[in-house]
Design a protein that fits this description.
The protein is built from two helices and seven strands, in the order βαβββαβββ. By secondary structure, it is an alpha/beta fold.
C-alpha cells in the first residue's frame, strides 16, 4: 500500500507553473494528466492508480508560501534524468538549490539535484541506485 495519494502545491501564476512542471516532469518521462480542470494541473498516474502531483492557486486566496523544511522528492531512473530535471528546472524559471551529484552526508548511491520552482517550492530529484565506481 502506498501511503501518499497525491501532493498539491500552491502557485501564483498557473500558466508559468504549468510550463515549469511540464518541463521538469517531461525530463522524467511524465506528461500532464488529462484529469485536470480549470485552475488545476496535475502530473502522474490517474487519481486511483498511484501518487500524483497537482498545482493550483491556494484555496484561501492568499499568496502561496513554501513551507520551511518542506520538500518533495521525485524518483529518477538514472543519473541522466536527474541532470535533465535540473537543467529543465533552471531553464524554466527554477532556481538552484544543489547541482546534480552525490553528497558526503548521504550514501554514495544517492545521486540527487535540488531546485526551487518559480514560487519557491523545493524539489529534489533522486536516483538512489548510483554506482560511483562504474
Amino acid at each position: 500500500m502506498s501511503l501518499i495519494l497525491y501532493t498539491t502545491v500552491g502557485v501564483s501564476d498557473l500558466p508559468r507553473a504549468i510550463a515549469f512542471y511540464d518541463a521538469v516532469f517531461g525530463a522524467l518521462g511524465c506528461r500532464r494528466s488529462h484529469e485536470g480542470s480549470d485552475g488545476w494541473a496535475g502530473w502522474g498516474p490517474s487519481y486511483d492508480e498511484g501518487v500524483s502531483f497537482w498545482i493550483c492557486r491556494p484555496f484561501d486566496g492568499r499568496s502561496p508560501r513554501p513551507g520551511n523544511g518542506a520538500m518533495i522528492a521525485l524518483r529518477a531512473r538514472g543519473e541522466a534524468e536527474v541532470v535533465a530535471f535540473y537543467e529543465a528546472a533552471l531553464a524554466h524559471g527554477g532556481t538552484d538549490e544543489g547541482a546534480p551529484g552525490t553528497r558526503p552526508y548521504y550514501e554514495p548511491s544517492f545521486y540527487v539535484a535540488y531546485v526551487r520552482d518559480p514560487d519557491g517550492n523545493k524539489l529534489a530529484c533522486v536516483f538512489h541506485q548510483h554506482q560511483p565506481d562504474e
